[in-house]
Amino acid sequence: MASTRETNTRETNTAAQQHLGELINAGEIDRIDEVFAADVLDHDRAPDQGEGVEGTKGFFRTLSAAFPDAHLEVDQLVADEDNVVIAYRLSGTHQGDFQGVPATGKRVEVRGVQVGRFEDGKIVERWGATDELGILRQLGAQVSAPETVHSIAQGDQPVMTERQDGFDVDDTTTAPDGSGRANDSEYEAGAHR
What we know:
Strand order of the largest sheet: 1-5-4-3-2
CATH architecture of the largest domain: Roll
Number of helices: 5
Number of domains: 2
Largest sheet: 5 strands, mixed
Distance between the termini: 45 Å
Structural class: alpha/beta
Strand content: 25-35%
Number of strands: 8
Shape: globular
CATH topology of the largest domain: Nuclear Transport Factor 2, Chain: A
């Protein structure tokens, strides 16, 4: 049986996680430091996301600019004394630039998972993923997952290029030395698998 301290900690952390969802859904991004510690360590930062709570705020500001009606719906929540894990759905209408794709007016919905480690009722470490490839596909971007994943794994950003019938990913990435994709021949031979 759980001790009173474990139950109170679990309840406190769960309430903080629920409060975070409320803040995101209300667009109150500047208040998420009520839930994230100032020096939160995000193990899965988005491209160009800064560190700590200010980096997290920047990420959510970018998301909110692209999807002003962004809504986070928790489907499953599991908690222990230190951690809260959520499986969620993120939905919204594309009203601004998202990863190089200009506003389309399309509604998207994707799934994601987040693990938050809490201390004193605040998230101090975060792991997670949202289906950003799913968002891009729902927006009509033509993306090739193996090339995009390989490119991102090499530290590159996929580049969206406009075509008459939509968007496409420019899979010509630049290696740190400026010479093009590193290990191109290995990639073509399937060595990336």
